[in-house]
Amino acid sequence: MTVAARTLTDQEQRERRAWFRARWERGVAFNRRCRIRVTRWEPDGVEIVLPYAESLSAHEDVFHGGVISALIDTAGAGAVIAGHDFTKGSRLSTVSMSVQYLAPARGREAVAYARCVRRGGRVHFADVDVKADGRICARGQVVVTISGERPGVGDPIEPLDEE
């Protein structure tokens, strides 16, 4: 059984996009722990910065590959939701992801550049490039599904703790 979607005004769509941007940085515990920063959040793409920390490393001054894949997942899903039509739902789940590591991810930060390359009824695709030290170190494709309503959309999101 399908439930008829509620029509949202342009303002309500913008408010949901802004809420999800704040959630990406402050509302997801893993993202907060990694200290990611959303530096761009537009319907045509997002940019997410991951600062280097020893706790995220594989070797001295090199990000762990699993952390880079998590950044790809986070940025790819963000690129989809940043331009999403919320009349089609707001509960997002990653269904698959592929990652190609091209070089060690060295440097003070890794930056993911992601864009949604295909929007479907429920299934959406995003391409992601990750750069570290100005070089592409990884590429990925993220496939997400969006259907149903995510509980808590629009609830207040606490500010980041300044440590």
Structural summary, described in words:
This protein has about 160 residues and is an alpha+beta fold. Helices cover about 25% and strands about 35% of the residues. It contains three helices and eight strands, in the order H-H-E-E-E-E-H-E-E-E-E. The protein has helices spanning about 10-25, 30-35, 65-80, and strands at about 35-40, 45-50, 55-60, 60-65, 90-100, 110-120, 125-130, 135-145. The strands form two sheets. The chain has a six-stranded antiparallel β-sheet with strand order 1-2-6-7-8-5, covered by helices on one side. A two-stranded antiparallel ribbon has the order 3-4. Strand 7 and strand 8 (about 135-145) form a beta hairpin. The protein is globular and about 50 Å long. The mean pLDDT is about 90.
SSE topology:
Elements: H1 10-27, H2 29-34, E1 37-42, E2 45-51, E3 57-59, E4 62-63, H3 65-82, E5 92-101, E6 109-119, E7 123-132, E8 135-146
Helix pairs in contact: 1-3
Can I get a quick summary?
This protein is an alpha+beta fold and 163 residues long. The chain is 26% helix and 37% strand.
Radius of gyration: 16 Å
Unreliable spans: none
Approximately how much beta-strand content do the residues carry?
35-45%
Average pLDDT works out at 91
Structural class: alpha+beta
How many distinct beta strands? Answer: 8
Notable traits:
alpha+beta, 163 residues, globular, single chain
